[in-house]
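Page 47, continued from p. 46.
Same chain as before, 375 aa.
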Amino acid sequence: MITHLLVLLDKSAPSFCYYQHDCQVPELMPSHILADTINYAKTNNLFVTFLLGKQPLPTEYEEILDTIDHVKIVPLSLADTYKDAIVVLEGRYGQSGKELPDDPRRQVIFRLSREQLPRMAESLRSFIDKCGRVDLYPVDMEHYVENDIREYSGQLKQAAELVATEYKLGHAMEVNLISDRMLLQEMNNCNAGVTHCTAAPDGRLYICPGFYYDDSERCAVGSVTSGLDIKNDQLLTLEHAPICSKCDAYHCKRCVYLNKKITMEWNTPSRQQCVLAHLERNAGKSVQEELLEMEPFSDLPRIPAIGYLDPLLVVTGQVEGVKNGQKQSCQRTEDLPLKLVQAEKLDNRELLIHIFRMQREILYKLEGLSAGDRQ
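Result:
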């Protein structure tokens, strides 16, 4: 059920997660559309998050926003103007925690580009004493290759050591990639299209802002005047995600935008998304083990050990998975070749054969066969 509405007040508002856009020219949502949007939120009892652009809002907009409970997400340039807002920093532009006004209660979103990856741990150090929570998003994930994944793993280890040290010093610094998994016992994904949707400056609704920027004409799923209409919305849910439903990387955003962009399926994540999430999971486990003698860590459920980084191995029956602290029994299928598991270069015919052995419906889809053509 939709309980939350993201509102793009300005087309140039910074991204706050994995999607990217190049809109730099301010383009405010027209005030009459804003009024309709707030009316839609009130009618459907939705909590609202407003995404602001680079400039402070006009007084008339501020007055409209004050008619509904909300939070704001703003770029660094507005951190002093909106002191209670969540602030977005872009690592690709050289922004860091050093530029933030000191506020130990502040939540910060830090978007780390692939080029900035070797400085991830260093960037996190710049946030110490500057804020209470950092949500770090490794953007450009779709372009990660094995070298990037190894670099990410090394940076996570340094970040885990930093977080553990801060906790020992009495500073409960939260970093989503490391802290969140320690506290979770079930999936806590983004849930775009399931628990929240996005209202854009054009007055139409989208599953998330990424789809608005990619193709606003084709990706709209309703409007603030006509309501939400997502076709086949069950494909967005965890129950219809065969890989994710067998996974215990509970902190993973399970980003449907990246799924659709990389694998062309709503409910099928890319290997990059899965492997990075499991590296993060294991980094959280290492911090938990180091702090087991401290409260509240001594009371938290233990994160189980696993022998894989890609839950596809669980789905295909090659390893046992773990969920809710218990091993999952897997129905073994025809083994995949090792090179398929490692996602190296592979022969397309061989890949199709193994896909066919796992699930005929996937092969039908790849070949474009209709139900009547199937033998």
